[in-house]
Amino acid sequence: MKNLNMSRKFAVLITVFIMTLVVIAALSHTLIGRMADTGEEIYEERLVPIRVLGQIRTDNRALDGYLLELMLTSDIDRNKELQANITDRRNSIGNNLALFNDTFSSTDETVTQQVEKLNKEIVAYLEGTEVVLQPALRNENAAAYRMYLDDLRPVRLNLVETAAAVMDGINQEAEAASIAMQDDRNRSVLTFWVLVAIGALASIGLGVYITRLVVRPVRELNALMGRAGAGDLTVESTYSSRDELGSLTQSFNQMKDNLRELIHQVSQTSGRVAVSSDDLKNNVEETTKATEMVAVTMEEIASGSMRQLTRVKESNDTLTELTTGIHHVSNSAQQMTSLSEGALQKVGTGNDLVDTLEDQLEAMNEKVKLLQDVIEQLDVRSQEIGTITGTISGIAEQTNLLALNAAIEAARAGDQGRGFAVVASEVRKLAEESAVATKQIASLIGDTQTETKQAVATMHVVEGDMRHSVVNVQQAGLAFDDIKQAIEAVGQKVEEVSGAVQEMAAGATEILTSVNEIQGITETTATETENASAATEEQMASMEEITASAQELSNMADEMRQMTKKFNV
């Protein structure tokens, strides 16, 4: 256990604790399962038979009541109903008896004998009810009642007594099983707590043992570190193990040895540092004089760089203004190019619209011609209808004359021609109405012919206007073509100017970039010169500080030699 690393030691402790929990859990599961099995056994072998036996007793009482009622009534319908109830109860008693025999189990010989007796008495009772039932169904109630009192009632009383004895025996066995289950529970609880105590003691003992294995070396190593911190580097830890504490002890011993060697080397080095600090002081004084000369030269260079930077900035500003103007011209040229392209697109769109309008006008002209032909044909048809209307008007006048003649002839015929006179009168009215309608149609046709002639004249005028519009649209198309060619020529010139301006802008940009680079270099040179001058001044100050530091280093070397003497190496 001592040579195990820390993680394995704690793993052993955790494993023991987990195994203890597993054993306790397994035992608890076993004991609970055993108690559950015992409870299930009590239910199936004790409580179920008691419940079934109670149902048998209930059916027995109901069956006895139905038999007595059957022997007291002579109503045929009621007898049939009672017979059905008796049959149901007898079947229920038989089924429950079979279920009771299947579920009942007992180790008591007396109870077993009582159950056998109960089976025989139930069978005898069911057979007796069948015997009593027959005369009762025939309404021989007196004979049936005597048979009930003499034969069936004693069997029933014995059955009730035996059933009560069986239930008492089963209850006693159930109480005994319950007491046994309670004893098992008490033993299980005791066993559980004993195992818990054993597991807790084992875990505590192992934990204390592992803690001592860890704490004791740590305390020893802490004491050795305290002595080493006080200056005693001769201490040595003797703890040996292959765990982390053993590695820590070895590291402490190695650190102590290295520190002791370091103190020894520091003591030797401090002497050499004191000698070197004196040499450094002399060299710094010579370097300071040379640095003063360099500082004067750097100031002159910085003054010249500042004058050059001023001239470069003036040139840069001039080139910047020139470049800005060139870029402005280039942007304007590009805008003109864009406008020319937009105008060219719009001219193309207008030209397309003119072509479309020309096609539409030609189509409209064709439709106007067709409409003119239709109107002229309508005029011809109107004239034909006028001719037909005149014919109808003549027929109506002749019909009117014929009706008048018929009326005269009917008047001559007297009473025999009265019906014919009525018909002639109606025909005359129809002829007059036809004549009026014909005149109206002739008037409408005349108006239609007049309007048709006006429409034909108007169509001739529209046709001439359409031809004139087509000519105008064609001339507009030619004008758009001329405008398009002119805009294309302007666009080409603008593109040439834009290209030249862009080349000038690119050249000016390159020049400006070069001037900016020169300005940057000049600024950098001036800055670096100033920095060099400042660095020279700082170097001079540093030389003075180095001189002071060299003196201080010499003093510190003396102090270091005195401090190393405090360690016992």
From TrEMBL:
Assigned protein family: Belongs to the methyl-accepting chemotaxis (MCP) protein family.
GO cellular component: plasma membrane
Segments forming domain HAMP: 212-264
Any single biological process term in GO: signal transduction
Keywords (A to Z) from UniProt: Cell membrane, Coiled coil, Membrane, Transducer, Transmembrane, Transmembrane helix
Transmembrane annotation, as ranges: 190-215
Signal peptide annotation: none
Protein species of origin: Exiguobacterium aurantiacum
Record-linked PANTHER family: LYSOZYME-LIKE PROTEIN-RELATED (PTHR32089:SF112), METHYL-ACCEPTING CHEMOTAXIS PROTEIN MCPB (PTHR32089)
InterPro entries found in the cross-reference section: HAMP_dom, HlyB_4HB_MCP, MCPsignal_dom
Chain ranges of the Methyl-accepting transducer domain: 283-519
CDD domains: HAMP, MCP_signal
Coiled coil feature spans: 354-381
Protein name: H3
Subcellular location: Cell membrane
